[in-house]
Please model this.
Amino acid sequence: MKVKVFHTLHNYHLKDLPKDILTGIIIAAVSIPISMGYAEVSGIPAIYGLYGSVFPIILFALFSTSPQFIFGVDAAPAAIVGAAMATLGIPTGSQEAMQYVPMMALFAGLWLLLFYFLRAGRMVDFISTPVMGGFISGIAVTIVLMQIPKVLGSGSGSGELLELLEDLLEALRHVNLRSVALGGVSLTIIVAARRFMPKFPMAVVIMAAGVLLTCVGHVDQHGVRLLSEVEPGMPGLVLPAFGDVDLSQVAGRGLMVAVVVMAETLLSENNFAFRNGYKIDDNQEILACAAGNIAASLVGCCPVNGSISRTSMNDQYGGRTQAVSIVAGLSMAALLLFGTGFIGYLPVPVLTAIVISALMKVVEFDLAKRLYRVSRNEFYIFVAAFLSVLMLGTIYGVIIGILLSFVAVILKATNPPRAFLGVIPGRDGFYDMGKNRYAYEIEHVVIYQFSESLFFANIKMFQEDIENSIREDTKVVIVDAGGVTNIDITAADRLEMLAESLRKRKIRFYMTEHRDTVNAQMRGLGIGHLIEEGRVRRTITAALHDAGIVEPYPLEGLDEKERRLILSIPAEAENTLEEFAWAFGDDTVAQIEKRVHHVLQGIHQLPDLEELAEEGLEKRLETWHSLGAIDEDEILRRMELHMDELPDNMTEEDNRTVVLELIEKRRRRIMEQLRRENPDVLEKLKASRARLERRLEKQNPEAAKRLHEWEKKMDL
Model:
């Protein structure tokens, strides 16, 4: 495997340097309170958070292929380690913690190094967004609950939810009101600034204000706790304490940290890469994470991670390359050498408020709301992962979340979208009878659509759906297997049994619409005779023809009067637009009218029609280029019916004529293109236009009458 070094600095443009330097300094400044706070969360003194913001960041920049992602001391790994310390009964800031925490960082780095050699980046694909979101949110809320006692004037909470609540109740018995006021005001200001001044580094200002308050107001004399003083200087080398720790514990927790670091970093990096139009090397990013964590362990720091908050800030301020990370690391080194004196003056509730404000952004409220609206099953997985972390700890939380994720996959595969199809008079194709009120079943025919691969867990459902649909007069069963891409041996055996059972009942059975690879699988699984017997057809129509059923199809329960009624129904009652109907379903007509009005509003804003004539109508319709010809033809016709809505300066006959001529020009271009490229569709368009005219005349006879008069005058 070829290792890329300083990949983002190749062909570096010096014009980007001033912006990268400024952004790097800002990120270093913001990292001061956050890194110190998360270091304390993990169980080590705050100063080690600054130590972890020098070499780990620079080493990540050395190997990373992302031009903008920032590494550093972050919430998730700090929380996992902090929770581990609480579970193991190791006091925060103790000598034992100083041995265990760096060892967890070391093992996290070694696991990540192994993942790099195994090219294990694809492991991330098996951790769903709800699981990761619930996991991270659970960690964030856990840390917030750990931090609240510090705002109240006590020490940090520990353990899972019940223990944290006990610590909180104990802290409430010894409340320091000045500490509460200081923390509460700090948090309020930061949250408000985030809303109204998102780019302003308010956390740095609040930290400076806290130091000033200590110097001037001597808040420490009124019971407000301060951080411990530290000597200036760079961190010394910390040798791994293999003989002083339980290796099974640190290796196991290190693995958990490594998985979370890899998952969160890769998912976030790819999100930024997609958003900003560049590509990253996932495997190289794992190596960068490994290097950063090994470096963190050697300076006594907790595990480090890709930071979404710092990267977002980098994105806001326009950082172009990993030069930003290098500048941030060097800026932190300068601070450690010459500026650590302020740390002993920083009030704990101020730092805690900064940490809590950062964690509030980590909790995935928006994701939870989205999942609740879109997918209740995934929402429940999110909640389960969240509560598992909160009540049982990080390890059990992630295990339960991943298990639930696999359960969700199985449930989705075993209960796929499926439907029974029918025919709408006057329209081509086959339609879901559950969603189309004018779709009718073909007499003596069952058409069943199954949208998932057939395997042991869903073949019973497939079989029961078909068997339950069969009536005494059923003669043909057709399966629309367009969504079937794979068949396992269990499904193959059941499919053969179903076909044989139907044959004995003198019912023809067909598989249709599937890919040719499924036919190859059927032959390999020993049911190729179904193909040889003609029970496999390319299309539903071919299967119907084979069964002796041709258009116009005899429809179940539909008399001639009802058929004529359906053929004459207005556009509002039927999805007539092909692409729009597929995209918008029941909202088709509303959407098309919305688009028409949008174009008309654009015309309203023109001072005259010369500009419209110059640019043509096509440019106004450019957002619809993906639509089919039939769709666009209907759009154009509906625009013509809205000629009365043109602004006063365009109601003159000449102006209306210009608009109508442009519409007609576009329509002719469509027809000419179809005549050259697809004559069959052209004939379909002509038939569709005739039906459309009849519907629109019934829908709005007055507008149609006026339009015909204008067209007659214009000889269109």
User: Anything to note?
Assistant: Strands lie at 70-72, 305-307, 418-422, 431-432, 445-450, 476-480, 508-512. The chain has 30 helices and seven strands. The first helix runs from residue 17 to 42.
